[in-house]
Amino acid sequence: MNNNSSSPSRTMSLALAFLAIIWVSPFAWLISNAVDPSANGQLRVPESIGVSNFISALSGNSLNQLWNSLIIAGGTATLTLIVASGSAYALSRLRVPGRNALLWSLVLLRMLPPTGILVPIYFAAQKVGLLNNMGIIVALTVLNLPFALLLLKNFFDTVPVELEEAAHVDGASFLTILRRIVLPMSRAGMAVVWFFAFTGAWNEFLFPLLFSRTEDAFPMAMGLYSAFGRNGSIDYGFLAAFSIVYAAPAIAVYFLLRRNMNTGFAGVGVKG
Fold this sequence. Notes:
Blueprint (H helix, E strand, L loop, with lengths): L1 H33 L17 H6 L2 H34 L5 H12 L3 H14 L5 H25 L3 H9 L4 H12 L1 H16 L3 H6 L8 H7 L9 H26 L11
Helix pairs in contact: 1-12, 3-6, 3-9, 3-11, 4-6, 6-9, 7-8, 9-12
């Protein structure tokens, strides 16, 4: 009986170990090649360990690409949050005829693939002289707005109007009500919107490919692409270090916003 019961357990352990190896292997490859000054693309124990690959990934044109990515992602996330917050609050509080139909129409339009609306966006940006990083920020903000509006409107709907009315009776101004009541109670939704807008812009490749006119304006997504086959060969050490640097900001932003994104509505309510 013991042998029969231990057989499935052993099989499960082997299966889990196999899955763990598959999951860990890419990260092991990245780390081993990133710290190996003589990396050749193989998964091996480095003969020597150094940070020369990371220095290359954080200097020169690579550093400029990092700043470009931070500007594009941070600008897109912040602009999306500002525009969506004001619009979503208005949709939540004002009894505008057809507001739900308008909101869901925007969401349905967002379901179209970006390539389907890329041509009109490109020519519109060209017409107003926005074939640059600012144009990328504006274009990505427009694409992010439907999701952000839908999410933030639902958050604002959960904030009791009675709290705002009570604060208004006590003499609080509109801006004070927003700053002290509405926005703190909606910080989870705002954090989610900012995070997804940031990561979406950080990983965006298509719009920078068309809007960035010079190599100095390239973000890291395009830098990672160009790192393959640079000068007719692949520098595996630089590529691995560059990949780690590329992933680090998005991971850091998640951990910084994790507490806010996990915040629920336990504190939202009206005391009678």
